[in-house]
Amino acid sequence: LQKLIHLLQATDDPLIQEQALITLSNSAAFSVNQDIIRNLDGLSVLGGMLSACAPEVKEKALNALNNLSMNIKNQKEIQVYIMQVCRNVESAPLNSDLQLAGLRLLTNMSVTSDYHHKMIKSIPLFLHLLSEGTERTQIQVLKVLVNLSANPAMTRYLLRAQV
Questions:
Q1: Any idea what the CATH number is for the domain that residue 109 is in?
Q2: Per-residue pLDDT of the chain (163 residues; tens, 9 = 90+)
Q3: 127/61 Cα distance (integer angstroms)
Q4: Which long-range contacts (CB under 8 A, 24 or more apart) does 113-117 make?
Q5: Which listed site, 33, 63, 82, 124, has its alpha carbon 20 to 30 Å from 69?
Q6: Range of 110's domain?
């Protein structure tokens, strides 16, 4: 895991980055590795990949962060990237794998109300995707919106959102 993280830091080659991110993402699916990756500063390395030029690299980084977000301690570190994830979802092509990867991460990060306030400005985006997206996109957006709607503090933002 340490070598994968170092490889991500050392290369600008999108093909190598993609392969390293896929391997890291698969490793992150195991709870024992989630703490190790966090302790190796892997979360900040992955967060830095969200501004990479290649959409495939961003997508793979989002997938890895999604697997890592199943851990509460990891969520505390990942939450700093929520607004960047929202920007990636907005700028991604409609119904793209990149957009879906971002929405999946936002779904996990919105399970508790701890970080809902960071998604308020993206509510109009979610509603737009709900009306314009394919069924896969709509289902993922609905998961985020259901999580947000479970928080009474979000009610006015959801009801007042301009679509």
A1: 1.25.10.10
A2: 999 999 999 999 999 999 999 999 999 999 999 999 999 999 999 999 999 889 999 999 999 999 999 999 999 999 999 999 999 999 999 999 999 999 999 999 999 999 999 999 999 999 999 999 999 999 999 999 999 999 999 999 999 998 7
A3: 25
A4: 113/150, 113/151, 113/153, 113/154, 114/75, 114/79, 115/75, 115/79, 115/82, 116/147, 116/148, 116/151, 116/153, 116/154, 117/153
A5: 124
A6: 1-160
